Structure formats: structure tokens, C-alpha cells
Inverse folding.
């Protein structure tokens, strides 16, 4: 993924009813290694990364860049939300000059099924509306990922197309804060 663009960073922590979306800190490193090495989390994103590789390569303060939020529940990291621009080499229907901010999210398995992903994504989408006014937001997921498909619909993403990549059918949708006139 490429840089998000000119946004004020870091923002003040974003608070929801149960969560805080904030910039990463050194104390988040172990939880983020757990996240990226989890076989369950890796199911629809190409598999888990080897823990020993992550231990060697993840910086002391991981994810310290514009558009990377840690999802914090009562002082415990349960996942991440990211916004990026898509690389031209990655499979998918959009080009880097299309202007979309690509939404990504991952939560640890113990946080699944409690509405945290929806709560965090709604808050993050609210942030992106202010950070990059008028920019559409894109989301891509495997169609086999039922939870992600339901969340995309709940958040108001509109399907643009489906395509094959990474050996599976992918779903591509777009969300816009701009209400069409007429």
C-alpha cells in the first residue's frame, strides 16, 4: 500500500461507546504480532505470517504512519483499522490515481462477534470524512468471508465488481460520504 496522503497525524484519539482508535505505541507490538501471526485472522488475507519473522521485522513502534489506528478496548489492543492508497501492482479494479482511501481492518479472534469491527469502522469512516473530504473509500474482501461481507453492507459499501485474485473470488465496493443530488 502507498501513503494515504496529506492528513493531519496523529489525530486525537477517537472515542466510541466502547473503543478508542489511536496511534500505535511501543506497548502494542506484542498484540500486533499476535494479530498478524494468528491463523484465524490470516484465513482470508493470505494466511498468517510466521511469528519468528514478525519478531525480527516488526519495529519497536509498529504502524506509526498516517491512517494506521490501533483499536483499544479498555487498555487492551484488539485490532487495527487502516486507510491506504492501493499499489498499482496489487490485483483489483482501482488504479492509484482513482483517489480512493482503502479501508482495512483486522481484529483478534477473541474480539469477533461483539460488534467491535462495526463500531471501529464507523468511527474511522467519520475520521476519514474530515481528513480527506470528498474522497471515496474502497473496501476489498473475499466473498467467502461472510462476516466481512455483512459488515461491508452494514457500513453502506456498494458493490462495484467481483474479480479473482489470490486463488479466490474478491468483492470490491465503494463508500462515499457525499450524498448524490437529485
Amino acid at each position: 500500500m502507498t501513503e494515504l496522503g496529506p492528513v493531519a497525524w496523529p489525530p486525537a484519539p477517537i472515542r466510541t461507546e466502547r473503543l478508542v482508535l489511536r496511534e500505535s505505541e511501543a506497548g502494542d507490538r506484542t498484540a500486533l504480532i499476535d494479530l498478524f501471526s494468528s491463523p484465524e485472522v490470516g484465513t482470508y488475507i493470505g494466511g498468517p505470517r510466521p511469528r519468528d519473522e514478525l519478531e525480527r521485522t516488526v519495529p519497536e513502534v509498529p504502524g506509526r504512519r498516517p491512517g494506521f489506528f490501533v483499536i483499544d478496548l479498555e487498555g487492551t489492543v484488539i485490532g487495527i483499522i487502516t486507510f491506504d492508497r492501493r499499489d498499482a501492482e496489487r490485483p483489483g479494479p482501482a488504479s492509484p490515481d482513482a483517489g480512493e482511501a482503502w479501508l482495512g481492518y483486522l481484529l483478534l479472534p477473541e474480539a469477533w462477534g461483539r460488534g467491535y469491527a462495526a463500531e471501529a469502522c464507523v468511527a474511522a469512516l467519520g475520521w476519514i470524512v474530515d481528513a480527506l473530504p470528498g474522497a471515496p473509500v474502497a473496501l476489498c474482501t473475499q466473498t467467502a468471508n461472510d462476516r466481512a461481507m455483512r459488515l461491508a453492507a452494514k457500513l453502506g459499501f456498494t458493490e462495484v465488481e467481483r474479480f479473482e485474485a489470490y486463488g479466490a473470488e474478491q468483492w470490491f465496493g465503494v463508500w462515499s460520504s457525499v450524498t448524490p443530488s437529485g
